[in-house]
Amino acid sequence: MRLIAILISLWLNRYPERFDRWRRSESFFGYADWLRLKVLGPNRWQGAFGVFAFLLPPVLLVALVQWWLGGWFLGLVLGVAALVFAHGPSRVDDDLDEFLASWEQEDVARARRAASELSGEEESPAAMDALPEEAVRGLFWQSYERLLGPIFWFVLLGAWGVVLFRLAYVAKEYAESRDESSESFGEAANLLVYVLDWIPTRLAALAYGLAGSFVHSMEEWKQAAEGRFAGNRVGFVGAAMGALNLSLREQAPEAVRSTAREARSLVTRAVLCWLAVIALLTIAGWLG
Predict the structure, then answer these.
(1) Which chain positions lie within coiled-coil regions (predicted)?
(2) pLDDT tens digit string along 270-288?
């Protein structure tokens, strides 16, 4: 059932415009403001208690529905809905196409916006020749945050694990949107994201290594994984770039598109590696 739910969610994500309204992070910011200002108050909102209060109602609701439904078909529907929600708004491929189009047209401002959209960073590098690398790094990270991370927690815990993973990132984004990343709520959200990412980023890095250049991937992981909270992302993206094993600096526009095509292919192969393992676990009877 879980493999079927994953495959259906990947197919549905080809039509993001049908789901984007209810899966944007901003849709939950009003709920967070209500909890903070009307229910808990600014003091109790800070720290792990605020993150717990933000996550508990939706995660508990999905867990109860998952337990109550139980049946194969309804459980499948719930799993598909959770995964589609976790895939997030828009499509990463569309964002990459937007960057490539602006890069080839030498529209610097538009290319920077597109690269920032992919990377999730507010500011892009000042140097124009650094933008393709940032865009590809963003592609790799988005493939984890939207696909591999949710799939891991879905296989492990079911639909409620997916919702927990996605909303942990929403809590982190909420703190960033309110310029509170350094306050206790933001720190607690960052810690939760770090914990949830620790195992799946390493498994994802392994998949990228198997799908690309394994030796370069593992070398880049060892060199890049530094810092308490940045380690998971920096290490994984470094491993993915090593698996790609292609330089994006000082490339002609047509060469950048070719390299981006290779990066997309690497993402597809890494996802297929995971799906193959999940299929084997399902055949063996270890997954429902």
Answers:
(1) none
(2) 999 999 999 999 888 887 6
